[in-house]
Amino acid sequence: MASAYTAIDIMGLNVIFDPLVSIPSLMGIGVLTGLVAILIYARTALGMRRFLRIGLTLMRIGVLYALIVILMRPMALIPQEEVRDRPTLSVLVDTSQSMNTKDVENRTRYEAAIAALQGKKSSFLTKLGGKYEVQVFGFDKNLRRTALRFLADSKDADGKETHIGAALADAVKGGANSKTRGILLFSDGRSNEVDPQSSMRSAARYLRTLKIPVWTVPVGTASEVKDIHVLARLNSSFLLAGQPASLNVSLIGTGYTDWTANIHVYREDRFVTSKQVMLENGHAETSIPIREERRGVFQYRVEVDPLAGESDLDNNKRSVIARVIDDKTRVLVVEARPHWDSKFLLRTLRADMNVEVTSIFYINPDKTFAVVEKLSEDKTTEKTVLPGLQMPRTRDELRKYDCVFLGKDIDEVFSSGELKLLQEYVGVDGGSVVFFRGKPYEGNSPELAKIEPVRWGGGALTDAYFELTEEGKASPIFDYGSRGKASETIIRELPAMTSVTRVTDEKSLAVVLARVGEGRRNEQIATVVYQRYGKGKVMSIGASGLWQWGFLPERLDQYDDIYGRFWSQMIRWLVSGSEFLPGRDVSFQIDKNAYRPGEMVRMTVSARLVERARYQPKIELVQPDGSKVRLAPEPPQDNQAVYVAHYTPEMEGEYEAVLSNNIGKPEKDVVRFTVYDDSIEQRCVQADREMMNLVAEVTGGEMLEIGQLDTLPDKMQAFETLARERVKPMDIWDRLPVFSALICVLGVEWFLRRASGLL
């Protein structure tokens, strides 16, 4: 619910306030403007008679305070005539994941709620249905109209969050039902809103002003459920061979305070180490050092010994897939028109211990300025300035670099023949190219257009914010670690782009990671896009102003590493997935190694030097329970080398995808990934009966046990009274006398000021 409804009684008239901003904020504005008015009159009306000066000051303050009251939006609750249609009883059933807790007579809370409604249907629901229209709603984060039979068909509740306060408010506003006279609420009382207690209290007070009682039916035990939930993740999406890394483990427990827990770590099912941690207030965090000496994909598993009385042992283990790359990355940045974006990009890349950066600034055909930063253990021998170093003009010179960043006006730097070498560098040699400032050339460049993932349009947007697509949310490029917020939420809080180049469309093989929107045209423009081109990848950042992520205001200090992680993770992702291993014709890849249930997994098969007419790749996906799913990758119509399959996992655990090739090498290839849900819904599941009772009492209803539902029709006899006399909030400030009085006061003040020589 967006606003807080405050109700008062004024001379027997029940009045509520529904301000656009908080009442304390408006009162603060009123005090401030009142002081300003007093100071103005004190300084400008020194020669005026005292009583006149005071009178004018009071007039001005009175008008200001009247406007403040109008901004508070006062509304009177006016009794309404009885409507002819039957009144409605709304039944709200909680469908969030905490309702799957099995603590109601060997049934889940959700099963108990549905059974109560179905079992009593011939009695209290039928009896109520004779007088009222009974409407059923399911809710988690959102409220939705449904039917009891549909709720019964769903054996489990699958909502990721619970917003009880918003559901209660939405049941009587926003067009959900204007005839609601009462609400029957089935829930465990667990709510994940930003401030659940405040939201539920505010909604209850609002319903009370509308004389809509809520009968609550709490399901689940109020006693604290004992459980430990394990979270584990690597400190980076990509690990470097021979470099130290860490496996970060978090234990989130309920019912365990000042307990010790034993953590065990396994690598490919072989024991690595154990560690004991203390659960302080049910929470513990630790870091396990790991190190891989060679390139590859490896599985780590974290297990925690069961604690006494623990209710769920399935969440005591967690698998993590580590992708290791063995080469340090050599990056070339070419810029013909230096900009803040290139300055901050170079500063960030040079801070990365595992990246060697060569930056070449094109001044004119006869002059370039280059800075080479050599890799070293302590990063002390950093920069070598080479004024004579020229642009890479041959394919061998390009091969020295793993990734090439191109800025603006690149068509002035390279000839047409040299730009064609970029095509071979990506498609044949497996290199990566990043266009990091939008369209890299003026006019047309068919050589670059061939490898770009988008077709550029005309004009640009300004002050546009990134919005992650589903592919972007799943990409390791935008994986910003455990911060309590999703990546898409963090991106929305970061500064806007100063300029975003329009595109006409994306190519068929392009994958859009982020878009920006333009409200006037309802236009969504692809901004962060990549595509596979032969053996390599091409990334396009169609925006200027990304440097602002590296120069954040103080209020965003918690995101000071986002800019660096964005570029370093992009480079590692580009380089790690671009190469065909020696002796192979086929490469099998996924975008990352960890997903959430419901996230789409995109599996890509790249094939070179195989006969397309005969090639028929097959994928067998082994799910955590051992069951298998068969997938057939399909090629885009205009691409001869790439095949794509999609799968949306729902089951938690570790997955293994096996690619079988009828021709080409290898005959089989394997990728692994994990699927886990870290929703807060599953971490704290004890029922909050106290809050359910509070909602009922505030609204004039009553908290009922499941076995007391037969008494509900008798308790709703007062329903008749509510149906006869109903209140409706109506604005009381938008009246002609109110504005006429304000205009008259302002007119008198103006006349007196003019007569006193103040105008």
The count of β-strands is: 40
Tell me, rounded to a whole number, the average pLDDT: 81
CA-based gyration radius: 33 Å
Largest sheet, if any?
A: 10 strands, mixed
- List segments where confidence is low: pLDDT < 50 over at least 5 consecutive residues: 1-5
- What is the overall silhouette? globular
Q: What's the number of helices?
A: 19
**Which sequence of strands runs across the widest sheet?**
22-21-20-19-23-24-30-29-28-26
Structural class, from secondary structure content?
alpha+beta
Count of folded domains: 5
Q: Span from first to last CA?
A: 47 Å
CATH topology of the largest domain: Rossmann fold
State the fourth-level CATH superfamily of the largest domain: Class I glutamine amidotransferase (GATase) domain
Beta content: 25-35%
Which percent range fits the helix content?
A: 25-40%
Q: What's the architecture of the largest domain in CATH terms?
A: 3-Layer(aba) Sandwich
User: What CATH first level of the largest domain would be assigned?
Assistant: Alpha Beta
